[in-house]
Amino acid sequence: MMKKTIICLLLLSFSIGMEAQNLHFKDGKFKIVQFTDLHYKLGNPASRQATDCLYEIVKAEQPDLVVLTGDVIYSKPGDMCLQQVLNVLSDVKVPFCYLLGNHDPEQGISVNQLYDQAQQNSYCVQPKRNGNTLDYALPIKSGDGTKTAAVLYCMDTHDYCKMAGVGGYQWLTSKQIGLYRNWSAAFKRQNGGKPVPALMFMHYPLPEYNDAVANTQVVLYGTRMEKAYAPNLNSGMFTAVKECGDVMGVFCGHDHDNDYSLMYYRVLLAHGRFSGGNTEYNHLRNGARIIVLHEGQRNFDTYIRERGGQILYQTTYPDSYTKDNWKKRDGTR
């Protein structure tokens, strides 16, 4: 048991950089802006729509953290393309972290190089890369800095499935699921045996997004104009999340015409809002998803902010997604 505990703590220390220790609650809140699918192209005027989106929404929301959930770059050479986006993030002076999508690795630069390039930015809070592992956990400290009050699990969804006869997108591997379980267990031990409230970010949606949509009893907010393009095989991350009991919500990108959120078995499954310009398909005004955590509570607020200032789909997890007991009402609404 002692050996197992030491191994878990070593995994925790390898995957959490010292930079992340600066993330903490302020006045009981921690605000995240999720930008996704910028599809930034060098020299393409349409990419100005993506950078304008970044500037405008960060200025309006004043977040504690920006999370980029993949498909950030869309032209070669990838390092020059990524640097253009990193320059914007340096300019807005807000901590950020970067997850790769399926298109980021297609721009002639390896995923390790892209990760390292982002990590070396002075405002980046993701840890230094441990070998070829691109998954990481970011602890958010309590307001007084004495403990970890929340955790963000950032999972790399790779690119395409190479298994013959399956195709589609790559699923999260058993190794990644084991890594998440070890992180979760270590944070739980540090918290006196109680799961630490957590969120999970990734590029692809989990297969359960489509299962949830198919359940007509599930409360859904937002726009759904395409199916969730999840991996064809289900490797079990959602089951791990339920068994560990810490993750309140999973947030993805990838599907440009979806920005909905819904609760499935008490876990919120949500899409970000497409944040790019007209360099790829889109039928929603570009914007971002906002998430506000509350210190010491297993709830959070979330909504979409469009470029131009409109706020859409303001909800609170879990209350907005839970049907009331109609039998206890005095009358109809």
TrEMBL record:
Signal peptide: 1-20
Keywords, ordered alphabetically: Hydrolase, Signal
Keyword Signal: yes
Stretches assigned to the Calcineurin-like phosphoesterase domain: 30-257
GO molecular function: hydrolase activity, acting on ester bonds
Matches recorded under InterPro entries: Calcineurin-like_PHP, Metallo-depent_PP-like
One Gene Ontology term, aspect cellular component: cytoplasm
Name of this protein: Phosphohydrolase, Icc family
Organism of this sequence: Segatella oris C735
Lineage, uppermost ranks: Bacteria, Pseudomonadati, Bacteroidota, Bacteroidia, Bacteroidales
